[in-house]
Amino acid sequence: MISHVWTVICSRSVIDEASKNISLMDIVEQVTISAESAKQKETLLPMPFEVVTLWAKEAETGKSETEARLRLLSPEGKEIHHQTYRVDLHEHPRMRTRIRVPGLPFVGAGTYKFCVDLRRQDGETWREVAHIPLQIQIDAP
Question: Domains of the chain by range and CATH?
Fold first, then answer.
């Protein structure tokens, strides 16, 4: 069985060649945008970032591969983006996924939510395993 360990939003990540450990740079919890940028609703904020997730195999037996999904919800709870990917733990007990995002779809100030979903078997319904809030606020002129 595969389990979600953690998910972090950061500006970038670096994997050390020798140790294979990851360094997460500039964890993103809140973003402040200019009032001018906020006037352009339903635009893509030029803010590249990564969503990094660590997955682990809970036992030696059981399923070693599954499907995961990252969804971005607006402050109103509307899904504004999603991406599906495979999690394969056949060869290793842990796996990191790094989803690079070139910009953030902006629909207004508030708390956006990155939801991490898992589907244990093909055709099974999605189950949310984590959600990470990202606060977007507008800088007062």
Answer: 2-138 (2.60.40.2550)
Position 113, amino acid: K
Dihedral sign computed on CA atoms, order 96, 15, 32, 46: negative
Query: Nearest CA to 71 among 137, 135, 127?
Result: 127
DSSP per-residue letters across 77-116: S-EEEEEEEEEE-SS-SEEEEEEEES-EEE-SSEEEEEEE
Do residues 49 and 10 make contact, with C-beta atoms less than 8 angstroms apart? yes
pTM of the model: 0.89
* Pairing state between β 94-101 and 49-57: antiparallel
Cα–Cα distance for residue pair 37/35, rounded to 1 Å: 5
Give the CA radius of gyration of the chain. Answer: 17
**For the segment 41-80, what is each residue's pLDDT rounded down to a tens digit?**
678 888 899 999 999 998 766 678 889 999 999 999 999 9
Query: How long a stretch of residues is the chain?
Result: 141
25: Cβ contacts below 8 Å, ≥ 6 apart: 10, 11, 12, 13, 14
